[in-house]
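Supplementary Note 3. Input sequence used for the single-chain structure prediction.
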Amino acid sequence: MSRPNVTRSEFLRGLAATLVTASFAPMVSFGTEAHAEEGGPEVLATRRPLDLATFRALKETVFRLRRGGDALGNELILKNVVELQFGKGTVKSPQIIQTEQFSLEFQSPDGIVLPAGTYTFEHAKLGTVLLYISPSRTEAKGRLTYYRADLNLLK
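The predicted structure, written as discrete structure tokens, is reproduced below.
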């Protein structure tokens, strides 16, 4: 099994982009079932806690994508979940100790290339979650496209 080659700089760049995106819509976060108050924003709630173990249990399963409320008809398969660890002897600040950092690698079996951005991922067991993804590589002469999502969650 190949592991995505993620440098600390790439992870932090992806994290910064996710935080900027989240600041535009602070009322919408990770979640599943959409609940709209009359005239109010859509609010999402999760069925399961979001953590490394949850995503590891969902490897090789299918997520359906939506963007801006519209179903895209695209499906991505969660292929890999990689915990980002720091080398031995690295001084860990209290902020690092209190977070769980990992990357998700999704595969588009139909080779469709999606632009980097925030998408609503729907999963039968997890529910709905907003993730910022970016294309990371292609294989099989362009028939398989891979996407990466970097997460830094509080424990």
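The first strand starts at residue 33 and ends at 36. Residues 44-154 form one domain.
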